[in-house]
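Hello,

Following up on my earlier ticket. Below are the two sequence lines again, exactly as submitted.
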Amino acid sequence: MNAVECTNLFKQYSGTTALDHINLNLTEGKIYGLLGPNGAGKTTLLKIISGQIMANEGQIFLMGKDISKHPIDDLIFYVREYSEYYKDVRIKDLFELTKIIKPSWNDEIKNQLLNSFDIPLKKKFQQLSKGQQSMVNIILGLSSMTPITIFDESYLGLDAIHRHNFFEILRSHYAEYNRTFILSTHYIEEVSNLFEEIVLINKGQIVGKHNKDDIENLAYELIGSKDQLNKHFRKGEILNTEPFGSKLKCAIEANISNEKLLEIKNDNIEIHKLSLEKWFIYKMKGVAQNDEKIY
Amino acid sequence: MFEDTTLPIYMQIATLIEDEILNKTFSTGDRVYSTNELSKLYTVNPATAGKGLNILIEEGILYKKRGVGMFVTQNAYQIIQEKRSKAFMNSSILSLIQEAIQLGIDKKTLLKMIEQYPWKEA
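Thanks for your patience. The regenerated structure is below:
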C-alpha cells in the first residue's frame, strides 16, 4: 500500500512556482530520505503532504484516503524544528494536547523517551535550549505513533550523542511498528544508512527516486589517468571529474561486474565507494548543467 | 565501519558473517544474527541488513528456517574459502604486487620478504 500518493501537485507563492506538478508515491513501512538543495521545495512539499498548507492543484492520498480538500490529522505528524504555535505551552501540557489531536498517541513510548532525554516538563517550550526543543519535537513525533511521520530537519539541534540516540530509537520503531518515516536533512552522511529510499527534489520537481543500496552498488570514485578512465567508462556514466595530481578523480554511476572491477584494478586505477553526500552533490550539479543546456 | 571501501554496506555485512564462519565463531547448524540484530548493531536500515543475509542464502552459505532464523549450512566453510581464495588472488595479491612495482621492489625481493614473514599457521 502507498503511504503517500501525490498526483500533479502544483504550488505557487505570489507568482513563484514552489512545486511544479509533482508526482510521488511512497510505500508504507519504509524510511525515506528527502534530499534537495535550499529552496528546492522540500518544506513546501512536506507541508502540503501533512495538510499544513493547501496546493493550488493536484491530489494527495494518505494511506489510500484523499486528503486534498480535508486534511486528516490522525494519519500524519509533521515534526519541524521550531513552532510558533506552541512556544508558550508548558511541555507537560504540550504532550497532553498532542495526545488529543493524535488518537494513536502512546504514553508508554513517551515515558520511555523521557527516560533517555532529560526534559524539564514544567518549563514552557521557548524556555528550553535548542537541543531540548529538538528532543521534545522528536518525542512528539515518535509518541504520536501516526502511520506517517515527517522529521523536517527536526534533529539539527541535537548534539552528536543525542542524535545517535535518536537514530537508534527511530530505527527500532521502524523495525517494530512498520511506520513510514520521511526525513528531510542536510546532514546526509550521518543518517544515510537508515534510509531505504532516497527522493531527490530540485527546483520544485522530483528529479530522482532511488533505492539506497542500489546507489551504493552503482556509485564509485576512481583515481586514474584520463586515457585509462575513458577506456572503461562512457561519458553518460561519468558524474564528475576533477584533477587529482597528475591524474583525474572521477565519480561514476555504472554497473561494474567483478570481471570489470578486476580489469580496472589491473590498470592500476584506484577505486572506492562514492559517499552518498558526494553522489547527491554531483547529481544536483548534473541537473543544473542539463538545465543550462536547455535554456 | 569496515575496511573494503568498494563494497556496499549490505555486502560488507555479508562479508562480516563470512569472516565469523571462517574464524569458527559460527559452525555448521549455528544460528547467525537476525536482520534486526544486524540492523541494530550497525544502525542500518533492516532492509539493508536483510539484503546482506539474502546474498548468503543465495550462495548456499546460510539457510532459512521460517520463524526461527538463519543457520549455517554444511558446506558454508568450503564455499566461502573457495570464493575468498579467488578474490584474494584478484585483489589482495594484485594490490600487493602493484605497490611493490611502484616502490621498485622486484619479484625476487618481494618473494624473500614473504619468505621472511613470521607465519603463524592456523
